[in-house]
Amino acid sequence: MKKKVLFAAAFMLATVGAYAQGNGIAGITEATNMVTSYFDPGTKLIYAVGAVVGLIGGVKVWSV
What we know:
By secondary structure, the chain is mostly helical. The chain has one helix at about 1-64.
């Protein structure tokens, strides 16, 4: 009797794990899409910061 209960409990845990993996994949896909959507604006921001730092450096070199 105990073996049947343990087997049923193990089977239920395995089933729950299978459902959790499906939701995890959807979550990872959504996170990937969110990070990808921030990549282009982030790249433009880094270029703008680099341009400002370059201009400041150029002015400092020119004024010496």
